[in-house]
Amino acid sequence: MTGDLTIQHHPAGELPDGRAVDRWVFGTAGGVTAEVLSLGARLQSLYVPDRDGRRANVVLGGTSAEDLLGEAAYFGATVGRYGNRIAGGELPLDGKIHRLATQKNGHTLHGGPDGYATRLWSGTEVRDGDRVGVRLALHSPDGDQGFPGALDLTVTYLMDSAGELTISYEADTDAPTVVNLTNHAYFNLGGEGSGMVLDHLLQVTADQYLPVDRELIPFGPPEPVAGTPFDLLAPTGLGGRVSAAHPQIWLAGDGYDHTWVLRPGEGLRQAATLRHPGSGRRLDCLTTEPGLQVYTGNHFDGGLTGPGGSPYRRYAGIALETQHFPDSPHFPDYPSTVLRPGERYRSTTVYRLSAE
């Protein structure tokens, strides 16, 4: 997957209000190539060769601005200010309850109904040694979706010639707040629109996971994965797990929509490996985050058609969201997501693409 790195900047249409959307395409000819949009600081496509050198886009995506502002809003997007759920839209912080914007279920998901996935970010081309990519910036004002404190944040995508895509997040605030950013790409290593991911093998470096209630919100401390369908310490076929007879699988709609508690460690460490035996494509996910939310697309219903022309039905893709834990403001024992003035939020995730 080696070759000369290139980057191109193109217009990508307009939003309904007339604002222009930008796109950057970068990577190596014949190798791994990423496409990033300014709308939602979004990974819109990711082309990866299989074991025979045939390239395919391995992430799901929308086909229009209407899609990306609606049903496909989270596809490949940077979600925040708080990725995942905050129960009841209530944020306790320093003795005060902040009322957040909520979705129809009464909880705050991925930063609220107008979170960062629907925002237009400003982007700048970046060359960093042997890597090339784009840095996107956003200002989130005090009170944005109910969150306290103004937040200035950047998301940087960088690709190297070996097919390693690094996503780095940074943020600072002028008042105490919470920050939990992640990328919401859905992967299908057989190729976008090629069918279900049930033939994929998933391995997660975690001895514990967080059980959830009917609202998919954790209700207590982590529990061991041993003896449950959440034991993914060895490469495991997804097909057998989404049909497992387990209450937590049923709660999520016959599949995963859960956080795994990654083994602790300093710096980047292995979170997960996703393999597609049919093509040989492999994705290794490394992160500095303490958790990995895995969602197997249990609720896709065919109502959205991808860029390849195929409708996205159940299990069309799998999300591997590196992040802190859901609803951590309500659980003092969970790793803290509080950011204070003078501190710098930093988080890094690496997607290492290869074929075997």
UniProtKB/TrEMBL annotation:
Listed EC numbers: 5.1.3.3
Signal sequence annotation: none
InterPro entries from the UniProt entry: Ald1_epimerase_CS, Aldose_1-epimerase, Aldose_1/G6P_1-epimerase, Gal_mutarotase_sf_dom, Galactose_mutarotase-like, GH-type_carb-bd
Gene3D superfamilies found in the cross-reference section: 2.70.98.10
Pathway: Carbohydrate metabolism; hexose metabolism
Keywords recorded for this protein, A-Z: Carbohydrate metabolism, Isomerase
Residues given in the record as beta-D-galactose binding sites: N84, R85, H184, A185, Y186, D257
NCBIfam families xrefs: PRK11055.1
Protein name as catalogued: Aldose 1-epimerase
Originating species: Kitasatospora gansuensis
